[in-house]
Amino acid sequence: MIKVGIVGGTGYTGVELLRLLAQHPQAEVVVITSRSEDGVKVTDLYPNLRGHYDGLAFSVPDVAKLGACDVVFFATPHGVAHALAGELLDAGTRVIDLSADFRLQDAEEWSRWYGQPHGAAHLLGEAVYGLPEVNREQIRGARLIAVPGCYPTATQLGFLPLLENGLVDNGRLIADCKSGVSGAGRAAKISSLFTEAGESMMAYAVKGHRHLPEISQGLRRAAGGEVGLTFVPHLTPMIRGIHATLYATLVDTSVDVQGLYEKRYADEPFVDVMPAGSHPETRSVRGANMCRVAVHRPQGGDLVVILSVIDNLVKGASGQAIQNMNIVFGMDERLGLNNVALLP
Amino acid sequence: MIKVGIVGGTGYTGVELLRLLAQHPQAEVVVITSRSEDGVKVTDLYPNLRGHYDGLAFSVPDVAKLGACDVVFFATPHGVAHALAGELLDAGTRVIDLSADFRLQDAEEWSRWYGQPHGAAHLLGEAVYGLPEVNREQIRGARLIAVPGCYPTATQLGFLPLLENGLVDNGRLIADCKSGVSGAGRAAKISSLFTEAGESMMAYAVKGHRHLPEISQGLRRAAGGEVGLTFVPHLTPMIRGIHATLYATLVDTSVDVQGLYEKRYADEPFVDVMPAGSHPETRSVRGANMCRVAVHRPQGGDLVVILSVIDNLVKGASGQAIQNMNIVFGMDERLGLNNVALLP
Amino acid sequence: MIKVGIVGGTGYTGVELLRLLAQHPQAEVVVITSRSEDGVKVTDLYPNLRGHYDGLAFSVPDVAKLGACDVVFFATPHGVAHALAGELLDAGTRVIDLSADFRLQDAEEWSRWYGQPHGAAHLLGEAVYGLPEVNREQIRGARLIAVPGCYPTATQLGFLPLLENGLVDNGRLIADCKSGVSGAGRAAKISSLFTEAGESMMAYAVKGHRHLPEISQGLRRAAGGEVGLTFVPHLTPMIRGIHATLYATLVDTSVDVQGLYEKRYADEPFVDVMPAGSHPETRSVRGANMCRVAVHRPQGGDLVVILSVIDNLVKGASGQAIQNMNIVFGMDERLGLNNVALLP
Amino acid sequence: MIKVGIVGGTGYTGVELLRLLAQHPQAEVVVITSRSEDGVKVTDLYPNLRGHYDGLAFSVPDVAKLGACDVVFFATPHGVAHALAGELLDAGTRVIDLSADFRLQDAEEWSRWYGQPHGAAHLLGEAVYGLPEVNREQIRGARLIAVPGCYPTATQLGFLPLLENGLVDNGRLIADCKSGVSGAGRAAKISSLFTEAGESMMAYAVKGHRHLPEISQGLRRAAGGEVGLTFVPHLTPMIRGIHATLYATLVDTSVDVQGLYEKRYADEPFVDVMPAGSHPETRSVRGANMCRVAVHRPQGGDLVVILSVIDNLVKGASGQAIQNMNIVFGMDERLGLNNVALLP
């Protein structure tokens, strides 16, 4: 039984880790931290957990307790994992960070986008970007995992087969992404109110969103060179879900794009290439660790349109984190992640 | 492995049976029927099932095939189970009916509310009303189960402790109930459109709803005599969930109502009595087979207010049906039903 | 042209005043205050106002400027009107307060429910409770108006005809009310997030809500004596709307309740008694200054069920405030308030 | 007073015409037709209209009655206006068609996309495409107006300034559009159910949507030559609103795009160019006849991103129809269309 610690468990990725780990046969949450909710039972904050975690309460972060865990998940704002990861690694604990702290390989670039110095640049060398569909081998046995962001997961899984095979104009990629409001976290912000985000749609951060450098980094790796990406995120009136609509121009229009995708993801348990002509709905992955992808070429032109959907809290965060844990510890990658999406 | 058949699998209780049974370690769906979707793969209609039921397709109802199952669930409009249940019982198959066909013990009353003759009155004698918290012993080994309706489940579980103990004025019970739109099923009705049911709230069927006689029947049984119930259902702009707000007048104000509820449901795996002062949210049971109940006495008067929430598709339908199956076959009642509610 | 000032214009009742007053032929907003948004154009905060208030900016409250207005609306948290109303009245300005500051006639009761001393008890003598359907004559020419709360408006208009005529048991009134999330205002609270309030339903403040004493005060006045009211508010996943479901027991079952309501409200421009058997939807009043009421007697018993719907921001706040302004200044009560509700 | 007839008044564009015309000082609805609802009062179908149209009932279409109107709006499925428009024009009545019947100038292309022969090709010569921002002069005095579709309105208004000035690569235009569910009309379709369209997002008709040829036709006219457009519509869980996110590649990056848009629309009452850096929300135009546009150049590259929002039922249908009526009859274009958008 793997002993799990969670730092920063009051947010949505925290409760989602608890929900999923309750079904995991070989993992057990033994510590969950929160400064603000110290002493509060997790079931008081999240009544859906009643009957599943009745003995578990939030506690202030304590490196000794966390260091006694086999693995610690960081479900925290950026900066927190920077401060604690090193000590935990020294204690022999694996660290799986759901925040952005170790996603960018370039500490200066991180610093530019997050507006503060990188707090653990010395650890970047061993941080593995936890996108199993790309880095499965490096994840196996890794000590420090940077779980990809939600937009980056949907976007990279959508673009990868094209870029890895040099099939499109890498300089003209567009990712028009739509996210549910839970992507903004459980923070008391006016813009996330039901009365503000409901019954409306808007783009945001068109000038530049923090996920842009992360996506670009991943696409560069896949393309083996520079890429030009325009990324426009939109806030959508739903709780969960990301719908990425991706546009790229084929340099070779004779390619069988559908077949390419089916082959690329044939052995991937958590990427589902839909039949040609499909329009995946975000609800088809609600609560499930799954990315569903569909491929289109409207009017048979050279523009390919990829539709890629995930649940931002699962394949876009906590589910993918557990998938990484399973790989790190050499378990079946699918453990605890086989529930059916909730529809309707 | 219990072989399961599902009649009428295209509706929401059908897909919900599939979702939950995918996680059941001792049951396997071998037949699912639909006249309109004959030959269609279940994953084509419900992409969330992709990877879980890839070989399963809808077929037209065939008594021989269904009769070869250990148990058949009816997820059908009323009348269908009347027509088929007898033959299946004769074939040795257990029948668990999610429709209203066998809920009312009085065939004439059924006929009055449903506007057609009762088609299987001779089976009423052995039909067991599948509310485990009341009829667990009769369910064990039963051949024909009538799964309670959604409003009746939330309302009865909320009222039972008071009525069983003769603590309230049985003639003045009020159930003000709020349901998500999935209670209306997957039928192409204008009133269920997003554009009609969204961003709005309304009462309906105040004159008399078909669940009224079912609830009254259950409350009479609990009270051991006549009851007077006013039942006002409301349509609420959410997909899943029932919130029952129940009002009753105490005849003895010295009773410890909170303690009474805690004792009554202490051993019930799927009824959760919340701490005093709680306000259960429907989302705390979304996707889970659970009824959460809270007890209030506003301003310390003689009026008691019970708040009772369920997911109408789970504890109010498919989950409760599986709970019945587990009991019927002598398995652990909780098998396949231990997932955590999806929140947020 | 009436010169209007608005104190606290950044909240939802503030923007709603602006929306409605833009259509008012005889009123003009000349001052709008906000400490936090001093200098910001109203159209920057509320882009829906672009083209309508392009020259108007928030300013810090200034008694001299406000005192130069013919009328000042307070769209503020409680306590603010206490502090400023006296000075404005001295300056000859009419005050129409949308907050709770002057709703309760008893300063001690106010203090008990709001947890602070009443800051302007000396003004209570001339404060008029601005429910035109009850106090139209007192409103005409009044200097200080307390605009009723949202729940109190829907509930009182629903109960009044029964209580004014002594037709029900006044000791056993129940108001089961459902409100959209905008009732919680434009405050950055976790409980009002889209991710918390969406796709869920819950009761709240069952122990005692601040609108309880206000409703009781109004019902006592109508009944000419004590009343016993149980008030259970619920949070509903919609932006606007209140649906009050009211229960009372007739003492005389021979009365024509439908006729009674039609007669009581025959001349009221903003109360619409629906045909017998109706189920009013909240969306039928979205954005409109209207209360629609329907009367039911389920199963012909002695329990009467009243359904009363309003838009909490219009007839439950800003629209009613303007209705009061029209009456105060002797104008046609309907000026600026004749728009059709937005449906769908 | 202009006498108005409405053919097919039971759908959402019908009720929206009624809502807006109720505020129009110089128009009066005298006939509204519906075969299915013959004899039903409009207020029975749409209670929000109570008090505004109490004497108006649906009637079966009668050319004599319609021909006595000054103008007839068609709020019908395609094909109906083909059948009736000619007779009405002969009777001297102006026809403003909200359906797709006269939008495409090429009858064969229409036939290809709509799967039936064009029923009134002889009228195409005088049909004016009712986008006032392009065709104001032709609309003035026209007898037959084809009101643009919702997606075409948002998309054309967004692209026009770029194309009219030859500033972008016309062969690589992308319109990623998101629509509320009311765009699918008031038809009893499973895909439009609250339970299907709620809490989810999906693309649809990527292969080819009927609005594609209409948009292309308009863009060709603006560009003075062929264009290559990829149009991907998405279904969004909101009732009203279209958000068009438009992508084009500048051929001259020295142009002041913001200034260009401000100049192009300076005199347009119903196009609002937002300040640089803005992200218009669809709710900022809810219920209002307005298109708000914002211009971006992410990372200062040669890709320009235009955000264009409308209410699909107003500027995308009924509001624009009334705007056309105002122009046709030489009235102030803004009559009846100056209400403020409903926010929140």
UniProtKB/TrEMBL annotation, chains A, B, C, D:
Keywords for the protein's UniProt record, in alphabetical order: Amino-acid biosynthesis, Arginine biosynthesis, Cytoplasm, NADP, Oxidoreductase
Positions annotated as active site in the UniProt record: C150
Gene Ontology MF: a single term: N-acetyl-gamma-glutamyl-phosphate reductase activity
Main enzyme class: oxidoreductase
Coiled-coil parts of chain: none
Keyword Amino-acid biosynthesis: yes
InterPro entries, A to Z: AGPR, AGPR_AS, AGPR_dimerisation_dom, AGPR_type-1, NAD(P)-bd_dom_sf, Semialdehyde_DH_NAD-bd
Reactions accelerated catalytically: N-acetyl-L-glutamate 5-semialdehyde + phosphate + NADP(+) = N-acetyl-L-glutamyl 5-phosphate + NADPH + H(+)
Chain ranges of the Semialdehyde dehydrogenase NAD-binding domain: 3-142
Gene3D superfamilies noted in UniProt: Dihydrodipicolinate Reductase, domain 2 (3.30.360.10), NAD(P)-binding Rossmann-like Domain (3.40.50.720)
Pathway of action: Amino-acid biosynthesis; L-arginine biosynthesis; N(2)-acetyl-L-ornithine from L-glutamate: step 3/4
Highest taxon listed in the record's lineage: Bacteria
A Pfam family this chain is assigned to: Semialdhyde_dh
Locations listed in the record: Cytoplasm
Any GO BP annotation: L-arginine biosynthetic process
GO terms under cellular component: cytoplasm
EC number of the protein: 1.2.1.38
Family label: Belongs to the NAGSA dehydrogenase family. Type 1 subfamily.
Known role: Catalyzes the NADPH-dependent reduction of N-acetyl-5-glutamyl phosphate to yield N-acetyl-L-glutamate 5-semialdehyde.
NCBIfam families hit by this protein: argC
Name the UniProt record assigns to this protein: N-acetyl-gamma-glutamyl-phosphate reductase
Organism: Stutzerimonas degradans
